[in-house]
Design a protein that fits this description.
Helices cover 81% and strands 0% of the residues. The chain is mainly alpha-helical and 124 residues long.
């Protein structure tokens, strides 16, 4: 994927955080699936990664609604990761989810900053 030269730094960072967060959760699900052998461990990470990647694509495509949907997806993701951190499970999964909680929070805050809003409002 080529990044446009006029892309503001805040937009680059928020897209990077959303994509990396979604892929990290997907990798965590794949590792848990391979370790436990339960296919249900993979369902939620796949769905959530699809939502996050579509939000990142919407931000790059300058869809205004992607900001609101992105904040909602990130809020649900933070709650989900908090449940993983506080629930039972392997220690490494709790550590990964513990790192993804503030990452999602920072991405949600960046989605509401002026440069991202101005980027999404501007015409092509």
């Amino acid at each position: 994927m080529r990044v446009r030269p006029g892309l503001p730094m805040d937009v680059r960072v928020v897209v990077l955080l959303i994509v990396v967060g979604g892929l990290a959760f997907l990798v965590e699900g794949v590792v848990r699936w391979r370790a436990d052998g339960v296919a249900a461990d993979l369902t939620l990470p796949v769905v959530f990664a699809a939502f996050q990647l579509s939000v990142a694509a919407g931000v790059l495509a300058r869809l205004r609604v992607s900001r609101i949907i992105g904040v909602l997806v990130l809020a649900v993701g933070m709650l989900l990761h908090l449940l993983i951190v506080l629930g039972g499970g392997p220690w490494w999964a709790r550590v990964v989810s513990g790192v993804l909680v503030p990452t999602g929070g920072y991405a949600a805050v960046l989605l509401n900053t002026g440069p991202v809003r101005d980027y999404l409002r501007s015409a092509r």
